[in-house]
Amino acid sequence: MRMFTRITQAVSVAPQIAPEDVALAAAQGFRTIVNNRPDGESLDQPPGADIEAAAHAAGLAYVAIPIDHTGFNLDQVEAMVSALDHGPVLAFCRSGTRSCNLWALAAAKQGGDPVEIIAAAGEGGYNVAGLLPMLKQLAPR
């Protein structure tokens, strides 16, 4: 059984999921799947279109916000903020790290406290402390 790492009540992250994992996500109450992995990043990953089809078949929304080696930009953060409005969200990438980082940035943009964001990620096993300057910058003043 695939484990999804809960970061908050509304957001969990995971390493690469397969189409057959989507039914489990639906059964666990997720409403949106967010794919943070660019297609073709590795030969062993299923195409995003396959996961999207499985999401739609399970009655879930699907959003692709690919994060590559160039890092994050404001458009990606805004897209994640929008996806979070349709939660609970399961976001995935190769290891879950990019997904957790993007959630942290989006949570700050939504007004979350940077220290609480870092703590929530840490409880899920992800260290986003290096994002503190960006979290502070994104947080409303």
Describe the structure in your own words.
By secondary structure, this protein is an alpha/beta fold. The longest helix is centred in the C-terminal third of the chain and has 13 residues, at 97-109. The protein is built from six helices and five strands; from the N terminus they run E-E-H-E-H-E-H-E-H-H-H. The protein is globular, with a radius of gyration of 14 Å.
Give keywords.
single chain; 141 residues; alpha/beta; 5-stranded mixed beta sheet; 5 strands; globular
Whole-number radius of gyration? 14 Å
User: What proportion of the residues is helical, as a percent range?
Assistant: 40-55%
Note the main sheet: 5 strands, mixed
- Summing up helix and strand content along with how strands pair, one would put the structural category as alpha/beta
Instruction: Tell how many strands the DSSP assignment holds.
Output: 5
Could you give the order of strands across the largest sheet?
1-2-5-3-4
Helix-strand topology string: EEHEHEHEHHH
Span from first to last CA? 42 Å
Global mean pLDDT: 93
Q: What general outline do the C-alpha atoms trace?
A: globular
Number of helical elements: 6
